[in-house]
Amino acid sequence: MPKSISKAVVAQSGGCTAVINQSLAGVVTAARGSKKIGGVLGSRHGIEGILNRSFIDLEKQPAELLRTVANSPSAALGSSRYKLRGDDAARAIGNLKKDNVRYVFLIGGNDTAHTSLQIAEAARRARYDLNIVHIPKTIDNDLMETDHCPGYGSVARFAAVTTQEAALDTKAMQRVDPVKIIELMGRNSGWIVAAAALMKRSPADAPHILLVPEAAFHEKTFVRQVDETLTRVGYCIVVISETIRDAQGNRVGSKTEGVTADPFGHKYVEGTAARLAAIIEKNLGVRARFDKPGTIQRMSMAYISEVDQREAFQAGAHAVQWALQGKSEVMVGFQRKSGPRYAIEYRPVPLIKIPNRERYLPETFFDRKKGMVKPAFIRYALPLLGGDLPALASF
Questions:
Q1: Which are the contacts of 156, defined by CB distance < 8 A and separation ≥ 6?
Q2: Residue 294 three-state SS
Q3: What sign does the CA torsion over 305, 310, 313, 318 have?
Q4: Do residues 14 and 112 touch, judged by C-beta distance below 8 A?
Q5: pLDDT tens for each residue of 225-243
Q6: Tell me: the pLDDT tens digits for 83-101?
Q7: Percent of the chain at pLDDT above 90?
Q8: Where along the chain do the CATH 3.40.50.460 domains lie?
Q9: Residue 140: active-site member
Q10: Would you state the pLDDT for residue 1?
Q11: Using the 8-state DSSP alphabet, how is residue 82 labeled?
């Protein structure tokens, strides 16, 4: 089979999201519509499927099934956090050759970008003509060179709405348990926690305190802030990142037993909210409850953002379009257009700019002293939530 009608491979990696399958559907739909691609293979469990030649023939899947998969959470092909080692990259190229694969689309975050570069470099060494495009995916919203990442809009909507739901419950139960701590994800950045404030309308509204990895956690300050909020409002909603750190850089909820890190060296955490609840109960003598939605927050279709779905699909479709144009070693970047109405355009970003870098909440978006978002963040993030937000109220 000549290159003009060679095959494509698509894989999904890293933490799953509510829209990662939209990107998969975007790739398959665009590839099916091209006369230059003679088949689309889905690699099972990320790069591991390429290494093991474990594929599913996506060309044969019914269109109705593809539409259903696109509107389902998690990674339909199976995900992976496998880190290439030894001769893995060269072996991957050898397997791609066997199936005449000339187009590779890896959907994932920072580590997947690094894996994409390794595969591209191995292809050059082997003098194998290969076009590889990285499709961004991360709820953490921490990739460089893009306005935002597919997956973030939906988890941000989850954070914004569920924080208000929890606030109404805590307000009603304030005579029993007046403090609620909500622990959200986010690795080394506070983008998800910041989104919890997107439905806040006044200082008395929840959330009252935001704790993010970008600002050091100080126990005395935290206790004082909660105490002041209880006096002023009657109840207190605290939203925290699972990876907050103290002034020495130590994670408040570091895991110390069992498996403590993933293959890429990212440390696991546990019990951050529970520890903070214990601190409040000890120092203030009031009951503090905590909620930890965990992976539910990145999977919830009930809180899906239509904007997020649409953009994730287009990211996959643009990746195929660019690969067919000869582009390689690029990531699908989002660039926000200027003007009063939200709109983005897709642009190829050199892949070399992505790995081993993280995008943190800037000072223009977050006031570290007050522990609260700034208006600029609201203007940035609110359009990503998609559709009308529910109207919630209490007496």
A1: 191, 192, 195, 198, 305, 381, 384, 385
A2: coil
A3: negative
A4: yes
A5: 999 999 999 999 999 999 9
A6: 999 999 999 999 999 999 9
A7: 92
A8: 155-299+359-385
A9: yes
A10: 43
A11: P
Q: Which of 111, 140, 142, 308 is catalytic?
A: 140
Helix (H/G/I), strand (E/B), else coil: 140: coil
The one-letter amino acid at 295: T
pTM over 0.85: yes
Contact by Cβ (8 Å): 24, 316: yes
Answer positive or negative: Cα dihedral of 196, 113, 30, 10. negative
**Residue 253 scores a pLDDT above 80:** no
pLDDT digits (tens, 9 = 90+) for 27-82: 999 999 999 999 999 999 999 999 999 999 999 999 999 999 999 999 999 999 99
Q: Give the largest Cα separation in the chain, rounded.
A: 74
Round to whole Å and give the CA distance between 393 and 82: 46
Is the domain defined by 155-299+359-385 classed in CATH 1.10.3470.10? Answer: no
Topology classification of domain 3-150+303-353: Rossmann fold (3.40.50)
